[in-house]
Amino acid sequence: MPPPADIVKVAIEWPGAFPKLMEIDQKKPLSAIIKEVCDGWSLGSNENFALQIADSTNFYITEKNRNNIKNGSILRLTTSPYQTALQLHERIQSSSMDAKLEALKDLANASRDITFAQEFINLDGISLLTQMVESGTDFGDLLSFTLTAFVELMDHGIISWDTFSVAFIKKIASFVNKSAMDTAVLQRSLAILESMVLNSQDLYHKVAQEITIGQLIPHLQGTDQDIQTYTVAVINALFLKAPEEKRQEMAHILAQKQLRSIILTNVIRNPTPINDEMAHQLYVLQVLTFNLLEDRMMTKMDPQDQAQRDIIFELRRIAFDVECEPNNSGSIEKRKSMYTRDYKKLGFINHVNPAVDFTQIPPGMLALDNMLYFARHHQDAYIRIVLENSSREDKHECPFGRSSIELTKMLCEILKVGELPSENCHDFHPMFFTHDRSFAEFFCICIQLLNKTWKEMRATNEDFNKVMQVVREQIMRALSLKPNSLDQFKSRLQNLSYTEILKIRQSERMNQEDFQSRPILELREKIQPEIMELIKQQRLNRLCDGTCFRKISSRRRQDKFWYCRLSPNHKVLHYGDLEESPQGEVPHDSLQDKLPVADIKAVITGKDCPHMKEKGALKQNKEVLELAFSVLYESDEYLNFIAPDKHEYCVWTDGLNALLGKEMTSDYTKSDLDTLLSMEMKLRLLDLENIQIPDAPPPIPKEPSNYDFVYDCN
Predict the structure, then answer these.
(1) Is the pLDDT of residue 157 over 80?
(2) What are the φ/ψ torsions at residue 680 (nearest 5 degrees)?
(3) Do the beta carbons of residue 23 and residue 9 sit within 8 Å?
(4) Residue 633 DSSP SS3
């Protein structure tokens, strides 16, 4: 007879005694189980004891998490969270430096557990730690472990960040501002400043007064990538929380301090590979930098504003090498006619008043800014494009003005200007860190590409949208190769001519065009179940390999991971927390928690997931919504995931649906099915190359008049 579901068999350790094997009834109160264990070892005052998971986490067992105890778990009897907190509260105030250091090490380790953290905070432990930091008497390891404990305690979100004094902020800032500071202390101090800025608008102002960009720059010029990562994170936090009116000012300071070139030299072009967290912070910085363009992108041109109209006059002057005529030269009608003719050559939609073209938002005034930048900084190319098109036949001219406006709008969509950075994205482009005006330079390359593609397509005004679609595809394909510089991006585009795009499209459409006859479709239907089974096996194998997921909250942390993998027999999901991102597969036996596949009721995705309904930054981020999924088990228990990228999201949702006997519906499955079916069909039809396959099967011949015939094999 198997044991009842509420009974779990565990081993319990106690220092100096043999471990006990016992059965725990999960229906009994935890206090009664602890009393039973204490009585077995003749220990009095069972209220002073508690049970812990005997692994590297040492987390306390509580009524809330006791369901995580599985058969075969090893537990440890230890002092209760309150007693441990009380002892550590006293020990960290010891007059002996060695005793104090050991106590702080124990505190930093214990603070990762929320049950202990709650008890220590109730003893006013946070205030004690801040006083120790403010006193300035501790240095080196003492200070490092004090700050580590503080970071771990605050990460639980039990108390508000708004409670800290200016003296504490000044002290933390002083650790960052010092040129020679212990690496561990500097790392913790940067983490604290980032959390302060992200979690409190009031603290943002206080931190901004104590820390300048100039004081952070030297930390980027070192060789420690962790310090560089935390430094960029603090800069991003200050950027993100700065009021709208101060962001442009801050961007100007960043440009003055040459932040971009320092990051390019010391981080991006450093021989050390960029880790995921640094890639994320560079992506955030890239997004925040481009978001500075949002104001211009959403600003309509005022047709009555003379300063704005002068920019259009400047475009005309540079293109046609004409000076603004004085008001008394020629009749008004003649001047109007001349302006109208030139504005038509410049490719504006409204030839009479081109200012009207810039009232569309997006891209608003940003398009005009880009055009002026191109005209001033790439004057030869600008003049060549305008004059070349103004001398063509009307039906084949590429309208520079209209093209620039639509191209600017397209580039804003591609780079997601105005959207908040995703919590989970690492997609930064090194080439945007190679120039102070990277967006404008990006535009200059793309407008020349558009003109080149227009000529290659021999396009007319009716083909305008088709040209824009081809240009978008060219840009997206070149960006996907992650060029290291704008010149490299330009050379990638040279290889993606319109002819090359047609070849790529033709090759991608081959399946649809070549395999439409009835016999081929029937063969395809016959093969499809085999291919789907192959895809299903691949998904399940990937689940068996497992994936490392990042724990994400509104207080983003760099070092919280958990791992999940499917058992080889496809019957159990093993999962558990990790100290750091793993280099390879994590073995099943190191993952403490288990979820039987038979207990899974459903897979939920997107905004329906419980962790997407919680209040916080994640709810507003559509990219995170697209990567979120949850496994519902028992009645209302959930295992919540946020995939590292779209590929892993598709693999896991497909694999889980396959385990439940449901259809795999992800985009990745459709793509794999098309690719594998195409390959299999081509292999099977190799012998029929150059043979026309009829749409209908040949007719069956009539029966012979008699069957009196024999074939002589000899």
Answers:
(1) yes
(2) -65, -40
(3) yes
(4) strand
Name the 3-class secondary structure at 53. Answer: strand
**In whole angstroms, what is the distance from residue 489 CA to residue 442 CA?**
9
690 by DSSP, 3-state: which? coil
Q: Residue type at 328?
A: N
With tokens 């002892």, the residue in question is 87
Q: How far apart are CA 134 and CA 143, in angstroms?
A: 11
Indicate the SS3 state at residue 355. helix
Tokens encoding 377: 């900084």
- Kindly tell me the sign of the dihedral angle through the C-alpha atoms of 262, 263, 268, 270: positive
Chain-centroid distance of CA 621 in Å reads: 11
Distance CA 366, CA 55 (A): 57
* Residues 144, 359: Cα–Cα separation, whole Å: 56
Helical pair 464-480 and 486-494, crossing angle rounded to 10 deg: 120
Q: What is the pLDDT of residues 591-647, one digit of tens each?
A: 878 889 998 999 999 888 888 776 454 445 677 788 889 999 877 788 889 888 889
250: three-class secondary structure by DSSP: helix
Q: How confident is the model at residue 251 (pLDDT cuts 50, 70, 90)?
A: confident
Q: CB within 8 A of 271, min separation 6: which ones?
A: none
Looking up tokens 């104590």, which residue turns up? 210
- Cα separation, 278 vs 231, whole angstroms: 10
Please name the residue that has the structure tokens 């508000």: 160
Pick the most confident of 407-411, 414-418, 523-527.
407-411
Give start and end residues of each alpha helix (H) in 391-437: 400-414
Cβ neighbours of residue 121 under 8 Å, at least 6 residues apart? Answer: 153, 158, 159
Q: Which residues pair with 576 in a beta bridge?
A: 563
Instruction: In whole angstroms, give the CA distance from residue 635 to residue 564.
Output: 21
Check: CB of residue 297 under 8 Å from CB of residue 364: yes
Cα dihedral 577/578/584/587 (nearest 10): -50
- Ranges assigned E (strand) in 480-625: 547-550, 561-566, 572-578, 593-596, 600-605
* C-alpha pair distances (Å), 338 with each of 110, 335, 368, 385: 80, 5, 21, 20
Q: What is the pLDDT of residues 462-495, one digit of tens each?
A: 999 999 999 999 999 999 999 999 999 999 999 9
Q: Name the burial class of residue 373, with classes exposed (0-12), middle (13-18) and buried (19+) by CB atoms within 10 angstroms of its CB.
A: middle
With a CB cutoff of 8 Å and minimum separation 6, the contacts of 692 are none
pLDDT in tens, 223-245: 889 999 999 999 999 988 888 88
Angle at 256 between CA 251 and CA 262, to 5 degrees: 95
